[in-house]
Amino acid sequence: MTDLLFRPFDLAGTPLHNRIAMAPMTRARNPGAVANALTAEYYQQRASAGLIISEGTPVSPQGQGYVDVPGIWSDAQVAGWKQVTDAVHAAQGTIFAQLWHVGRMSHSSLQPDGGQPVSAGTRAVGSDPRYFAFVYLDDGSRGRVDPTPPRALRTEEVPGIVSDFVRGAENAIAAGFDGIEMHAANGYLFEQFLNPLTNDRQDLYGGSLRNRARLILDTVDAMAARIGAHRVGVRLAPNSQVFDMPAYAENEASYLYLAEELGKRGLAYVHLNDNYLHGERAIGEAFLKAFKQAYGGTVLLAGGMTREYALRLVDEGTIDIAAFGQPFISNPDLVARLQQDIALAAPDRDTYYGGGREGYLDYPAAG
After folding, report:
1. What is the C-alpha to C-alpha distance for residues 158 and 139, in angstroms, rounded to an integer?
2. What contacts 36, CB < 8 A, 6 or more positions away?
3. pLDDT tens-place string over residues 249-300
4. Under 8 Å CB-to-CB from 348, ≥6 apart: which residues?
5. Catalytic residue list contains 248
6. Catalytic: which of 188, 269, 360, 363?
7. Cα(51)–Cα(354) distance, rounded to whole angstroms?
8. What's the pTM?
9. CB-side exposure of 234: number of CA atoms within 13 Å?
């Protein structure tokens, strides 16, 4: 295998130092939903990644499903994120903002006026410790609770979701981000519209695959029109069943349709997230190749990524950029470790969410 993974890459006009991306990861360390100096230091430590994709940042209070995650709908939040992008750029890094709306994966305590979360339909998330909203509890501590059953967005409300993402994209550019990634994966709002078992609508956003994909494509088009398609990426998760998303027979066909449609739009990239199914990869290599062919542009892959898998898939041209998530938590110098084949430090799962510097800023680089 060659060292193609470590060579520079042109991301739709944005130069990257290498083909390694830091995948988005919620860390829940931002009281008041505003990125702060700790956030800036965290991302700056990891700026050797060719591309950093920020943790999910909600585009509206309605889009929140977890406390203490930084949003991007207010002036204060834009100013907070500006600290982050300035720090990353000072370290010669590149960073995109992941824009997020969790849909039904929320709780009434997080919603404006204590209302119901919204979704494509009214199908609730099953009660399971793996399916949770992260909230402030009655005693002031933070903890996991079952999501509140959602209500279906009214037809006339759906364009408001598009507008929220356009505002989020504009705010991201104002905050200094190099681009944005629309989070349409992992059981959140856009996937709730795409999936025919969570979307039982009878309007122009339901029924046929074209209708169920409409919100994704309308939102992409609106953001691209405002900030440029070359600054827009999209995250998808084929065959995912996380957060109680039901399996359906035409799943891969749905994503190949999206690949073709997104391929017409000149985007920065599509980012596929492999959420394992029953211990096996949810995205097989045959599907990866079919998706890459149908899309025709830059493809990122995240999920269980290893050095060997990344080297091979990039070398073969199956993907263009390999995205690593949890390894970046405990290895701020992950690119150097991968390039030199240095053993990786293991992350402390108990410090993934919440807290201060511990488990966030105190992982050392290799000696």
Report:
1. 36
2. 30, 80, 83
3. 999 999 999 999 999 999 999 999 999 988 899 999 999 999 999 999 999 9
4. 330, 359
5. no
6. 188
7. 24
8. 0.97
9. 28
